[in-house]
Amino acid sequence: MKKNYKKKQQPPRNTPQTAKDRVYERRRKQAKRRRIKFLIGRISFLFIFIIGVIYVIGIVIEATQKPVISYQTVQMGTIDNSDVFEGLVVRNETVVNNTKEGNMNLIAAEGDRVRKGGSIYQILDSSQSLELEQSLQSVEADIERVQEKRQDISYFQNEIQEINNNIKDYVEIYHMQSKTGTLEDAHELKRQVEYEVAKRKNVHMKDSAGALNSLQNQKEGISSKLSSNAETYRADQPGIISYHTDGYEDKFTLENISTIKEEDINKKYPNISTISGDIIGENDPAYRIVKDNTWKMVSYVPKFWADKFQVGKEHDFILLEDMGAEFSLYIEENIEVNEDLYKIIFSSRDQLDLFLNRRSVSFKSLEYKYNGLKIPASAISERNLIKIPTEYIINSDEGTGVMKISGDLSTSTFVKLNIQYEDGGYTHVLQDLEDNQELRLQDTIVEPSTNSKYQLSEVSTARGVYVVNGRITKFKPIEILTENEEYCIVKSTSTNGLKQFDQIVTNPKNIREEQLLRNMDVKNSKQ
């Protein structure tokens, strides 16, 4: 007999059959949910992090790529475009030698003009004369001490003050040159100071105050004894006296000035001076007499400068060795040596005192030294200017401008103008090619009252700078007087032109008229 078995019913899949299975299943689902939340959190964090990085990078890029605009304040300044020239001075002069050894006592001062037969110096030749000279110096020192105490009420106080100022100036000049000076410069300072001291002594001796009578009588007595023991030397011709010689007086003369070569100018020449009280030997140079005020100077210059030094013209210069003393010279000859070098012979009858004791000098032209508004060359831009007949310009509520005819020639629209200047019935206005409403060449404008038309056909180029008016730029044309690689000197013209204390953009690339600088990094660059 066949048994009938029932198939055992299986529990549903994934369904826990026991409490243990149910706990396990619950924990498994919780762990899965935690993993999902964790992954979602990580993905969200990563997404937010990437967005943050992109945002920071954007800020950095914006900050680093923000246009930097530099400006500076316009000030007055100078540009000197003259070269330094070297010159050789030639005078009409003669050196006179001494004929008897002895102590030299100068009578005529350096730079004095003497007549023929005028006393120049004395030679003292005995021990008695030396003692008398020492006594004379002692009395003169006493007179000066008395005078110093009453100098404020002396009739000669202004003259004495001028001499004291001269001494101070000589010492200051020597101090400025002391780093590059030579022993010769020190001797020159000594000579200059001794000369001024001698002048001051002579001024003191002129005062006839009662307190000085006794001392002056002593001085006159000693001087009388000295005269009887001294031999006086007199000028055999009139002229200007100098106690400086260099040994080249016979070589460099007005008669043989044509033989002076470029190498002669570049040499250094001695400056031998004779000082009162020194012992001078027989046949030693005693003094030099310059016969008249005429003197000349030879210089070799490149063709660029030779073209500027036209024969017969007068030019102004400054002497570098004398703190920029000014003088004038006529161009006497302009001789071509070769295609790059010219020999210039200058002449003058003035200011011989500046060149009385100088053989070689350094000088510069004053005519290429410009003063004005000094601006950096980097600040200069070029802009186009359109030429418009002035009668076509009208004033309206929108400003000053013209009526521009539109494409169909039936209507006209008002275009505001940026006027720069007027000239001969025409007005010159800035052209802004980035503005579609601006005027352009070949545009036609109309004069409303007469309905006459004018086609724009002329344009020019203007050099100028952008002035920062608050945070708005404005282009101002400039007139350049001179320039070098770094700076320009600009003329200060009308009230609408560039002025001192204006603030100008020094890096104007990509800057345009009336541009707002709010989104730019504006920095002040000091000149």
Please describe what this structure looks like.
This protein is α+β, with helices and mostly antiparallel strands and 527 residues long. Among the domains are: 18-65; 375-524, no CATH class. It has helices at residues 19-64, 127-149, 157-177, 183-206, 213-228, 262-265, 303-306, 352-355; strands at residues 68-73, 75-80, 84-97, 102-106, 113-114, 119-124, 230-234, 239-242, 244-245, 272-273, 279-280, 285-302, 314-319, 325-338, 341-348, 360-365, 369-376, 381-389, 394-396, 399-405, 412-416, 419-423, 426-430, 444-447, 452-455, 459-469, 472-477, 479-483, 487-491, 503-505, 521-524. The mean pLDDT is 79.
Question: What are the key terms here?
Answer:
single chain, alpha+beta, six-stranded antiparallel β-barrel, five-stranded antiparallel β-sheet, elongated
